[in-house]
Write a structure and sequence with these properties.
The protein is α+β, with helices and mostly antiparallel strands. The chain is built from 11 helices and 12 strands. It is globular, with a radius of gyration of 21 Å. The relative contact order is 0.16. Its main location: cytoplasm.
């Protein structure tokens, strides 16, 4: 008799992983979650909104996962997965409500899957949203044993009259950059080519550990700022770096003038440049030390930077907006 297990799919290991995952998901449940992991669908009620708009985003972790495989450390890339999604929907002023994850592998190891979801849970806790469901797919022969892929989907909510869409941005407005935690989750194909030895050290730390530093989640400080200040536009600095992402907050023909000496660059980016990557390509690929950018009224710039500092988030005045459709001008 041939069984499903003979084909490479271990149902019992799947049951074990679900059991381990449930505990991580339960920690994230916020008011409004109506059911737990195990139903056919997750349910969340919106609560008290006048004219709510749902805002969604989806993303993965990319080839940063290869660093996790090689380091055999799986409990942080789930944070990256959440960060990539919630930081994006945050750009429109949305408060993240819930998150769904998708994990695929060739051979399921319950403990590894649980570590991956622990990271997702930690990210959800940081973002203040609930992990209400997901899918773990075991696909023997499709993925190599020991390899996993992870992606996620976030849904948030914002009052329609409070959507941030960049429509009020004008010349003279100021740009504030909030510090990143490192490389975040983009450009790892180039990183892996430049830095093959994960056991090499930089400033006394293993390269593998530096490269696995999770993407920073900006939800809590930004939602706090929105209670007091007018934020005209926001940009999450992901793949495409400064050049692609900052102009995404603009509605009209505007130029972001950035002082590239106005903020600190993490040592990992300096190291990559020392290996031969030109500065312009770095700014066109990586966050270079700034993970999130705000466009604000000039009179609010200092107060917002001070507020962020008090909340534990280092921020800088990195530039201003000018007329013209040049996108980004680095000086």
């Amino acid at each position: 008799m041939i069984t499903y297990k003979d084909s490479g799919v271990n149902i019992e290991e799947g049951y074990k992983s679900v059991s381990l995952i449930k505990e991580h998901a339960k920690k994230t449940f916020i008011p409004g979650v109506l059911n737990g992991i195990g139903s056919f669908a997750g349910m969340v009620e919106l609560g008290h909104y006048n004219n709510p708009v749902l805002v969604s985003g989806t993303d993965g972790v990319g080839t940063k996962l290869d660093i996790a495989f090689r380091m055999k450390k799986y409990d942080t890339v789930g944070i990256d997965c959440v960060a990539m999604c919630v930081n994006d929907i945050l750009c429109h002023g949305a408060k993240p409500l819930f998150f769904l994850d998708y994990i695929a592998c060739g051979k399921l190891e319950a403990e590894v899957a649980a570590d991956l979801v622990k990271g997702v849970s930690d990210g959800c806790l940081d973002a203040g949203c609930a992990l209400i469901g997901g899918e773990t797919a075991e696909m023997p022969g499709f993925y190599r044993d020991g390899e996993y892929d992870i992606a996620g989907f976030a849904v948030g909510v914002v009052e329609k009259d409070k959507i941030i869409d960049g429509s009020t941005i004008k010349p003279g407005d100021k740009l504030i950059g909030i510090e990143s935690s490192g490389v975040h989750s983009n450009g790892y194909s180039l990183v892996r080519k430049l830095i093959p030895d994960l056991n090499a050290e930089l400033d006394g730390k293993l390269m593998g550990d530096i490269l696995l530093t999770p993407t920073r989640i900006y939800v809590k400080p930004i939602l706090k700022l929105l209670e007091t200040f007018e934020i005209k536009g926001m940009a999450h600095i992901t793949g495409g770096g400064f050049y692609e992402n900052i102009p995404r907050m603009f509605k009209g023909e505007l130029t972001a003038v950035i002082d590239k000496k106005s903020f600190n660059r993490p040592e990992i980016f300096k190291h990559m440049m020392s290996l031969g990557v030109e500065e312009e390509q770095m700014f066109n690929t990586y966050n270079m030390g700034i993970g999130f950018v705000l466009c604000v009224n000039g009179e609010d710039e200092y107060k917002i930077i001070k507020t962020l500092d008090n909340l534990g988030y280092k921020a800088y005045g990195i530039g201003h907006v000018e007329a013209g459709g040049a996108g980004v001008c680095l000086k």
